[in-house]
Amino acid sequence: MKLILRILLSALAVLILAHVLPNVSVDTFMTAVIVAVVLSLLNILVKPILVVLTLPVTILTLGLFLLIINAIIILLADKLIDGFAVGNIWWALIFSLLLSFLQSIFFTLLKEDNA
Asked: Left if phi > 0, otherwise alpha if psi is -120 to 50, otherwise beta: which for 88?
């Protein structure tokens, strides 16, 4: 149940960012849900491979290259999903940063108080 809520909240964050950022577009809410699922799968499957392959550059930049890897994951999702478009790598970078920020806010709402 929590996984479905996380995906729906991520889709909501994608929709919000598509309305706020001028070079990011999402056609429908269902497309936003697909974007959330595909981004999750790409982060699980592709991102670790990219991190290992670019480890020397990541170490030299003190981890800042991970932001570029996140932007590449966003652009890969753009190529895989019809109805989702990101202008260029700079907009993907901004989208990635803001998506992480919004998701952290939304996911704190799901945490249960154990007190």
From this structure: beta
